[in-house]
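Hi all, posting the design record for the shared folder.

TITLE: backbone redesign
STEP: 1 of 1
STRUCTURE INPUT:
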């Protein structure tokens, strides 16, 4: 994926500033919410399989903890940096607030390409990183989860490392764990399923039928691949998909069964039969009804926003659309469902997992999905009603609700001492 060199943190602050201006937010609370509460950076050693010692840089940023413990994923990516982590932590604060779950926002990252490491090297890296940040995390303080480059196994290693340091098992220190050690049913599909619930509601409002719609998806990981399957089951036609290796386009629809078999075999959708090869840049501009950016940030920018042909853009990724591009899409009548609303299903079911872990009482997948649908639909209705009443973008309405809820929590609690 191409990452345009726009500063993700500055973009996140710009989006916050728009909401703060409309809310006429008190200058003091504006200063509080515009920057992270706590930042931690570490350089740590890992012994590689051949005996070499390599150094890695890692981060953990807590943007806000006023509404509850910090919550946010851990990313393993070679191009991550502190500003990206700051931006993602801030987005997590707004995401938790907009769906009204009692968390603040956090994010973690290690600068590494996990594809270049063995499983043993990844485990040693994970356990050392978990040890370095162990004084920052905890079930009542900061609860990590998977993100790009990490998975349920990595969460299991973090949970085990933290638990060994404490002398007893603490499942609620992370979410996104395997089910057999306290994970939740429905967690793997949660982000995609929540996105589909939001998209269903938005399409009803916009008089767009999902059945028969042409859908393009950027990114074919857990969220992109699951979204493709769920939307196909609803009658949508997936016409374009791309990942880091390349993409495929077929205006008549892609055979998802064949595509999945190719992906499992090769690790990429590139080169799959049944369509024409397409680049990441070309895919974003394909003719379609629904575009789902499910990869990384800064994909729809001022450079390509005027060539986006989709009627609806649903942000499965965090920060895929820059503020300048947002304005262009709004002026062109493209409906953008913002990340802090569209992809909040993952953190919502992480909340369910955390609650189940604390109570040691576990739910069925049907119960999880029913509660997820309830929260996502309620959040969409609230944001959409504000957008219609105030004639503004969904993103602005979502930010207004999220920032106001967080600011009101600060105001109610007061400033200590």
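Okay, here is what came back for every position:
SEQUENCE:
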């Amino acid at each position: 994926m191409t990452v345009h060199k726009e500063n993700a943190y500055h973009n996140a602050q710009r989006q916050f500033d728009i909401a703060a201006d409309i809310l006429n937010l008190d200058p003091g609370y504006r200063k509080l919410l515009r920057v992270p509460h706590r930042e931690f950076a570490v350089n740590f050693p890992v012994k590689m399989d051949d005996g070499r010692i390599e150094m890695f840089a890692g981060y953990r940023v807590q943007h806000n903890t006023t509404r509850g413990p910090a919550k946010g994923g851990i990313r393993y990516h070679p191009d991550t940096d502190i500003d990206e982590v700051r931006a993602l932590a801030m987005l997590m604060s707004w995401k938790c607030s907009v769906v009204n779950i009692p968390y603040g926002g956090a994010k973690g990252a290690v600068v590494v390409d996990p594809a270049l490491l063995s499983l043993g090297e990844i485990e040693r890296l994970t356990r050392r990183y978990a040890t370095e940040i162990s004084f920052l995390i905890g079930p009542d303080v900061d609860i990590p989860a998977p993100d790009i480059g990490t998975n349920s196994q990595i969460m299991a290693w973090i949970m085990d490392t933290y638990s060994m340091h404490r002398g007893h098992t603490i499942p609620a220190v992370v979410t996104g764990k395997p089910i057999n050690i306290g994970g939740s049913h429905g967690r793997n599909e949660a982000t995609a399923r929540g996105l589909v619930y939001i998209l269903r509601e938005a399409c009803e409002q916009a008089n767009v039928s999902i059945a028969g719609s042409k859908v393009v998806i950027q990114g074919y990981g857990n969220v992109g691949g699951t979204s493709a399957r769920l939307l196909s089951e609803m009658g949508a036609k997936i016409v374009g998909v791309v990942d880091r290796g390349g993409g495929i386009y077929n205006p008549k629809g892609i055979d998802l069964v064949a595509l999945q078999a190719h992906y499992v075999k090769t690790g990429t959708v590139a080169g799959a039969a049944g369509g024409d090869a397409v680049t990441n840049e070309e895919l974003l501009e394909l003719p379609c009804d629904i575009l789902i950016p499910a990869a990384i940030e800064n994909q729809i920018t001022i450079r390509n926003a005027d060539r986006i042909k989709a009627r609806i853009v649903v942000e499965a990724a965090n920060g895929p659309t820059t503020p300048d591009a947002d304005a262009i899409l709004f002026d062109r009548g493209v409906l953008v469902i913002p990340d802090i609303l569209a992809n909040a299903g993952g953190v919502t079911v992480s909340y369910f997992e955390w609650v189940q872990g604390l109570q040691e009482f576990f739910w069925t997948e049907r119960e999880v999905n029913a509660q997820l649908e309830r929260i996502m639909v309620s959040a969409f209705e609230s944001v959409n009603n504000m957008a219609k009443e105030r004639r503004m973008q969904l993103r602005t309405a979502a930010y207004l609700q999220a920032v106001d809820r967080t600011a009101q929590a600060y105001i109610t609690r007061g400033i200590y001492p």
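COMMENT: The chain has two domains: 38-181, 190-342.
Let me know if anyone wants the other runs.
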